[in-house]
Design a protein that fits this description.
166 residues; mainly alpha; 9 helices; 66% helix
Length: 166
């Protein structure tokens, strides 16, 4: 599938395609409405423009579409909706040692308790140790800063997924 295929899709098909990239229904609706996209660059520009300025609830809805980093049961459940484009995103967890996995699990729980949403990181290309270091560096932030950080990580994630439409 490529961006031209998305331009030609009916409403339900286009919503499904964009939902594979980001589970914010507001963002998905805006992406569907912004069609047709002249080229891949226009698709990325629309994705950014449609992401900026969404409500906190819209961002939280997008975050909720992600599994916790390193949580296998969460991965299976959450990736069921986005598995077409999300495959392999947490492959850095494959070589993680038990101590790192446990530290990520605890860090994820602490992060959620502090901020009210899961730790969002663009995991592609990162080892479990790198993700743990990022979690530890970000958990000291205030909620507003972390909401912005998580939104930016979500933007990186949907760009990677949209790039699979090329």
């Amino acid at each position: 599938m490529n961006f031209q295929d998305i331009n030609a899709m009916d409403l339900a098909q286009a919503k499904h395609a964009f939902m594979q990239c980001c589970t914010s229904s507001a963002w998905v609706s805006k992406m569907v409405e912004s069609r047709p996209h002249a080229d891949l660059d226009a698709l990325f520009e629309a994705a950014n423009a449609n992401w900026i300025g969404l409500s906190e609830g819209d961002y939280l809805e997008a975050f909720d579409g992600h599994p916790k980093i390193g949580d296998v049961s969460s991965l299976m459940k959450k990736y069921a909706n986005t598995k077409e484009l999300a495959a392999g995103e947490q492959s850095g967890m494959n070589a993680a040692d038990e101590a790192t996995i446990k530290a990520l699990a605890k860090g994820n729980d602490d992060y959620y308790a502090k901020f009210g949403f899961i730790f969002i990181v663009c995991a592609t290309g990162k080892s479990a140790a790198q993700m743990l270091a990022l979690l530890e560096a970000r958990i000291v932030n205030d909620r507003d800063t972390e909401l912005k950080n998580a939104a930016e990580e979500q933007r990186k994630i949907f760009h990677i997924r949209l790039n699979k439409f090329s």
